[in-house]
Amino acid sequence: MTTGQDELVFLxxxxxxxxGMNAALYGFGPEKGRKWIxxxxxMGFAGEEAMPGVDLMFPDLSFIEERRKDLLGIFITxxxxxxxxxxxxxxxxxxxxxxxxxxxxNLLEARRLGEPGAPKxxxxxxxxxxxxxxxxxxxxxxxxxxxxxxxxxxxxxxxAGLVLHTGDWxxxxxxxxxxxxxxxxxxxxxxxxxxxxxxxxxNVVREGFSPSEAEVSQxxxxxxxxxxxxxxxxxxASNVARIRAVAEAAQACGREVxxxxxxxxxxxxxxxxxxxxxxxxxxxxxxxxKNLPRERVVALLTGSQGEPRAALARVSRxxxxxxxxxxxxxxxxxxxxxxxxxxxxxxxxxxxxxxGVEVITDRTELVHVSGHPRRDEMVQMYAWTRPxxxxxxxxxxxxxxxxxxxxxxxxxxxxxxxxxxxxxxxAPGKPDVVEHVKAGRLFKDGNVLVDDKDRAIPERRKLxxxxxxxxxxxxxxxxxxLGEPAVDIIGLPNRGRSxxxxxxxxxxxxxxxxxxxxxxxxxxxEGVEKAVDRAIRTALNEAWGKKPACHVQVVEV
Length: 557
What we know:
Layout: E1 7-14, E2 23-29, E3 35-39, E4 44-45, E5 56-59, H1 62-65, E6 71-75, H2 81-84, H3 87-90, E7 98-100, H4 102-111, E8 123-125, E9 132-134, E10 137-143, E11 152-158, E12 161-165, H5 183-192, E13 194-200, H6 213-226, E14 231-234, H7 240-252, E15 256-260, H8 262-273, E16 297-301, H9 311-316, E17 330-333, H10 342-354, E18 358-360, H11 375-385, E19 389-393, H12 397-409, E20 414-415, E21 422-427, E22 432-436, E23 441-445, E24 448-451, H13 456-466, E25 468-475, E26 481-490, H14 502-515, H15 519-522, H16 525-543, E27 549-556
Parallel strand pairs: 3-6, 6-7, 7-8, 12-13, 13-19, 14-16, 14-17, 15-16, 17-18, 19-20, 25-27
Antiparallel strand pairs: 1-2, 1-21, 2-3, 4-5, 5-23, 9-10, 10-11, 11-12, 21-22, 23-24, 25-26
């Protein structure tokens, strides 16, 4: 029911019910005159099996595109790709200021906005502790620990109350590089009164506290010092704390660091600009690898997620132009495979082991920790902030459902379950779901964006499963077939289950169908195409057990 009163609403368009593509809207004002802000604008990675030909996915922002005159700005919590990766692609549809801290701003400029053809995004630097006011919103960036520097929660104030959007966070008293999640800052928000907390759910199913980056640093120092020969470490390029830990480990035992991979180079450059690598010598370029003694070098490599074009994958295939490993060398995966990447990571590990390289992962050593809070950390956050309402975000269905139970156990009076497109009224009155609006995904296909209704992706899935049959034939105006039909099969096995060549099955189906049609029916090119298509699919299903896609073209002469 439309009302003229001011309302505070929350609307996720990405990142709820999934990992990645984070994009959340907050609106304030009467329904017909509401002003909006967006928190984060991130991308996700598409799996080749589910989305053939597609590498990247973005949230569908059509809801706010239709209201972009009322969108006041985009606020970035931190510089991970699942929070900033859609800016360059989607910002031209919104054209509003983007607010980010120095590190996030510089990395965004280096990684996405430095590419050819990138838009000239209006970036505004934010300093934590300095309030930003846009329209009816007052926003404070509240520093938190995470696996990238300058991560922040966002405290959003309106006349209707204070909402805490946590972003990605954890509690780490010694994060090596980056912020500490300060109890006092969040206790002060709790004392002020938190109307609602919109909180990270990633590790809610895990008990206890997440280990500290400092513990990983100690393990890396030990593993590098004990290595008899070369050491290569792969990690997320954005994890500056891990980069610093590797560099300190190398420095402690007289080794030099060689940085390998464009993503790694970009982050290192920005980290040095912002002072996060102060006190460490410059890293060497990859072409210096062959000239350094085998026991005096450590490589920092991209490719921890098995990306086939990244440095580590090329090293494992022995086709990297500069970096080679040999038996007795050591590779450390200072990372954990994101769900869906396990097979690609496993293939790299197997290739390295076949070469006699020692591979160390987090299965045997503390070489990686998550940047997200486990349950005991979440207990602390809820105790500090004492929210009236909790909305679980940043997780799949399992995480969101468990977080809802967890929040109730912490004494939160109102817990609202959301999915992408769920419009929730936070105030006035009891929080409640108002409606469900359009929310979906956009896919980067080559140089264009397509939505989830585009036929290209499902057609490619079908082609991948059952191949393609192509038939071209000519028929004159009297209904006479001219010459022999041109037939080709793509992606089909050579022979069916009885041993018959499948190309012959197709040719016979075409010939029999054309022979069974009258002159009058042969004059109907559309009818002929349908009849031939149906006959081919039926014949192949009998001979092979699958129905491929068919492309039948009748040329009228």
